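Quick one: co-fold with guanine.
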Amino acid sequence: MALLDGKKLAQKILKELKKQVSRMKKKPVLAMVLVGDDPASSIYVRRKGFFCAETGIVSKTLKLPADVSEKKLLKVISQLNKDKNISAIMVQLPLPKHINKIKIIEAIDPGKDADCLHPENYGKFAQVDESYSVVAPATPFGIVRLLEEYKIKIEGKHAVVVGRSNIVGKPAAQLLLNRGATVTVCHRHTKNLPAFTRQADILVVAVGKKNLIKAEMVKKGAVVVDVGVNRVGKKIFGDVDFDNVSKKASFITPVPGGVGPTTIATLLWNTVQLARLAKATAKRAKK
Ligand code: GUN
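Sure, here it is.
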């Protein structure tokens, strides 16, 4: 078994971004909108801000109370869309229940959509690939970069994705499909989950249930990517029973230190690409 070291890859991506940013006269600016005081979301936003600073990207965090109205949040996004100094916008999810998440995502200017969640970007990415959408869904793209870093072939493999969220499961399936995998998506209504997971050459698990995937559910030699973040006290566990599954897998991501760091690196990668695109568009408009 070998570890898929997300921390190491993230450092490599961030180093490359730092180089790109150092050549930019106008530094990219990422606006992060944080609604409420969910401790996990606050940690994520702080961590993203920390890596922005490391890379030379300017980050701005806008904190709004948990009871902020949808109208007010839409107004904040509209202002960020209009602000020429802002290169990219990220609204930290999940949002409080009284806010329509889809409405908020659709309000973000696709040219500033750091998460690649806007239907225009997601559609372009699904129809062609991330070169068309400019941005890529952060967690799935980080996963694929991790697989590519370790020279793991995707084309022709059977990839099984467990979880069908808009932020991980669905775009992960799409990305693997774009790269020529045969993809099966499992979710809460799937009957006999082990029958599917046991077929996986590449198994991606993004559910949020500690120890959901046990050794007997994994084929020998499989590549296992664990997206789960389950907090028990101060410790974080994935969705995979790491101690036992790692004995069967050829490659496996640790939690923490796997998919988390590459997600942040991809978000910053998206931010820099959007800033470059805006600059190129402005230059063309001047001519
Ligand atoms: N919540 C958990 N992961 C993410 C992410 O990648 N982007 C956003 N916006 N919210 C998240």
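If it helps, The chain has eleven helices and eleven strands.
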